[in-house]
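Incident review: delayed structure delivery

Summary: a single-chain prediction request sat in the queue longer than the usual turnaround. Root cause was a stuck worker, restarted by the on-call engineer. No data loss occurred. The affected request and its eventual output are reproduced below so the record is complete for anyone auditing the incident later.

Affected input:
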Amino acid sequence: MQAHDLTAMLRQPRLLRQEAYIGGAWVDADRRLAVDNPATDAVLGYVPDLGAGEAERAVTAANAALAEWKARPAKERGVILRRWGELLNEHADDLATILTAEQGKPLAEAKGEVGYAAAFLEWFSEEARRVMGEMIAPHQADRRLLVFRQPVGVVAAITPWNFPLAMITRKAGPALAAGCTFVVKPSELTPLSALALAALAEEAGVPPGVFNVVTGDAAAIGEVLTTSELVNKFTFTGSTAVGKMLAAKCMGTVKRVSLELGGNAPFIVFDDADLAEAVKGALASKFRNSGQTCVCANRFLVQEAMVAPFAEALSAAVEGFVVGNGLAGNTDQGPLIARSAADRVGRHVRDALAGGAMLHSGGEQHQAGDRFYAPTVLSAVSPDALLWREETFGPVAAITPFASEGEAIALANRSRAGLAAYVYTADASRQWRTMEQLAYGMVGVNTGLISTEVAPFGGIKESGLGREGSHLGMDDYLNIKLGCLAVQPS
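Output delivered after worker restart:
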């Protein structure tokens, strides 16, 4: 598939942009990066391969736009954000087509992501007017203490390929609502979604320089975004190893940093759980986006009496999956983002089998292509397996038995990751105990889907810093300032 082929699939071909967006202008370059379809390997188009110079231009443009944007009444900023979100929904079919073409997820999932991305813009359009200060009871009679909440300034972001729309709006929404300006470097694997988002930002009335998209050399652009003195806050979603490195660079200028990093989510099924609901939740958590989500269930802890029925029911469900190109019709599972990702999944499965695991379904590359891996269910997986120790990021459910509640909690917490966890049990007291005892930033009880714009999203331990979404999502984009006023007696 070439760019003209993808254009022909769109109702609004103008959304397929192949230039970066800096200071309100569309920017091209002689050097360009190919963007391909992971389902077919076909080239979809090319985007500019920009570097440090263009990143500095974007930061400068964001800084120049800052004074006017933060001075606007919050209501005005909110109106623009809401219109931006409305445009996403109005063009959901085209945006989903672009997203599926470059990322690979089934079209139905892509449409869901478009709605999710729009929801953050709508939510934070309303939160813009709820940024409030306060007065503190003074410490002495001739003083008055006031607390101001003000925008941090220029925000820089690096976003991942697995949710190329939503991971931008989840950051840009609160940033722009607070009065900040924004520069984003999207993944080089999925830049077309970000550029379509920029086109709609322009149409919604986001002023030049307030929202910028820089495509190209990750290392060179990242160096500028993490070290520039004009950047006041840096936000990143991606791997733990890269997040640590980028955060360390930010400390040279002591930037505000928020990180949403890797997970290794436990999915605990007790023997009193509703089997059908547990399987439904496992399908949603484990196999959505081919297992390529940060909150994806990675370790299935199943109470001994429930292992056989759970493994059988889950295997039956995934064996009915339609695996293939998300643009070619109804599809349940698409490709992995790269051949290396499929190779990693295969290595993890082979390691588990060598350690004594039992294969129930899958366990091999799918015939659809070399970036596809068959949905796989394993049981009797050792806690020493790679599937336990590393984030697999693929369509593999690895089941490990446990005997008691205490053992399940101990095994679940045996990880430096602390993003999401899931529990299935009918016991109300156990629901409360496990929510409290699991060392994770988010816990889903009897549900495999926990993400929503109205709730805080984020982890603890090595899964990150800060929270995104909800009213708490504004906090990372606001500075707190004290005003201490001396009052003369009358």
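Verification: The domain at 265-445 is CATH 3.40.309.10 (Aldehyde Dehydrogenase; Chain A, domain 2).
Action items: add queue-age alerting; document worker restart procedure.
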